[in-house]
Amino acid sequence: MRTQVAIIGAGPSGLLLSQLLHKAGVDCVVFERRSPEYVLSRIRAGVLEQGTVDMLEQAGVSERMRKEGLPHDGFTMAVGDTRLRIDLNGLTSGKNVMVYGQTEVTKDLMDAHEARSAQVIYEAENVTPHDFETDHPRVTYEKDGVSHEITCDFICGCDGYHGVSRTSVPKAAITEFEKVYPFGWLGILSYVKPVDHELIYANHPNGFALASMRSETLSRYYIQVPAGTDVNKWSDDAIWDELKIRLGAQAAANMETGPTIEKSIAPLRSFVSEPLRFGRMFLAGDAAHIVPPTGAKGLNLAASDIHYLSNGLIEFYGEKSSAGVDHYSQKALSRIWKAERFSWWMTSILHQFPDLGAFNARIQQSEMDYLASSHAAQVSLAENYVGLPF
Ligand code: APR
Ligand code: PHB
């Protein structure tokens, strides 16, 4: 088999890339080791930057998002009983974010691929990139016990943090940066009315909490828990009680509670690997970087990589120019590090660190005081939250 671009991973990065390349007439095949049902079973975040919304529009998969997504003009930060609303729309002269689950984005991309019988090979085993240091890269894989090989011009590793692409790169050719936080987020989904029409980020002496949503009837909540916590130790009632404490009296008074339909703990980590290109192979999305979810940047950063990579590849085939692919790594990394900085900063000011110490506790408080008293500080927060320009 032969194709122009072989894409490893059918998560949001791989499918968005494949959809944009298809629209530009570039041939590609996607390899995914899991089943479609498994890919859709993963619960992830749900706040989309304007840039990501525009890309989904460009990819022709925005219809359901436009109908079911919730545009948000702001959100609230609560520290103790201080509640500060961040007016995203006002502070960024009209920009906002779209609350629409990553699972829904992935589903819309999958449906678009199915509708055009696109080549997405699910349950592909032992997918392996080869010869990407040469001009003749190829990918091998097994399907139903039969081995296959495909030759291509480029390989795009969109296979997440635990994927094969990054680990196929010789250690000496790659540099990794990591910061592990001493806590995780216990997240729940429940068919109850959201406690507020906007998101609430809270820093309480008991720890961080977040009130988010998927729709006007499906709520998503998170509480900070120590790293290594056993999720079974947290009953639904205990979680609702803790949410009422951490989100403050006003939220507690409005909070509708009910049985959880999903409950899991995600560790918090910042991770970047450099560079993003190894000959004829590119890394994008979680394959190259992880952000703590506090800044809602995970999916948006993946989309940002795909913005630069898809443009570079389309330029390569359309205008026979390699300028875009040659600058992909540097351009994408510049935006990645800004999102890593923002996500680290949001995490630092909104969580309780076991070894915070009195001085740092004062600094956290003064970060909030400065934010509450400075328009410039709020503009900086807002422009990062809605997404910095590509
Ligand atoms: N072979 C084929 N597919 C693989 C392999 C492999 N060896 N390893 C992983 N995959 C698949 C996974 O099963 C998954 O479906 O690659 C896909 C990677 O998808 P994601 O992990 O969702 O990564 P990405 O598409 O970059 O999306 C990033 O996901 O984790 C969130 O916060 C993150 O929102 C961000 C988004
Ligand atoms: C979510 O809705 O899952 C969500 C929202 C905002 C975040 C993180 C997660 O910062």
| Helix percentage | 25-40%
Low-confidence stretches: none
* Strand proportion: 25-35%
The main sheet orders its strands as 6-5-14-15-16-13-17-20
Ligand types: adenosine-5-diphosphoribose, P-hydroxybenzoic acid
Notes on the protein architecture:
Helices cover 39% and strands 27% of the residues. The chain is globular and about 60 Å long. The longest helix has 28 residues, at 323-350. The protein has helices at residues 12-23, 36-41, 50-58, 63-68, 88-91, 102-115, 164-167, 236-247, 249-254, 298-318, 323-350, 357-373, 375-386; strands spanning 5-8, 28-31, 47-48, 70-72, 75-79, 82-86, 97-99, 120-121, 125-130, 138-143, 146-151, 154-157, 175-190, 199-204, 207-213, 219-226, 262-274, 277-278, 281-283, 289-290. Helix 1 crosses helix 6 (102-115) and helix 1 (12-23) packs parallel to helix 10. It is α+β, with helices and mostly antiparallel strands and 390 residues long. The strands form four sheets. An eight-stranded mixed sheet has the order 6-5-14-15-16-13-17-20, with helices on both faces. The model has no long low-confidence stretch (mean pLDDT 97). A hairpin with a 7-residue loop joins strand 9 and strand 10 (138-143). The chain starts with a strand and ends with a helix. The structure holds adenosine-5-diphosphoribose and P-hydroxybenzoic acid (PHB). The site of adenosine-5-diphosphoribose has 28 residues, from helix 1 and helix 10.
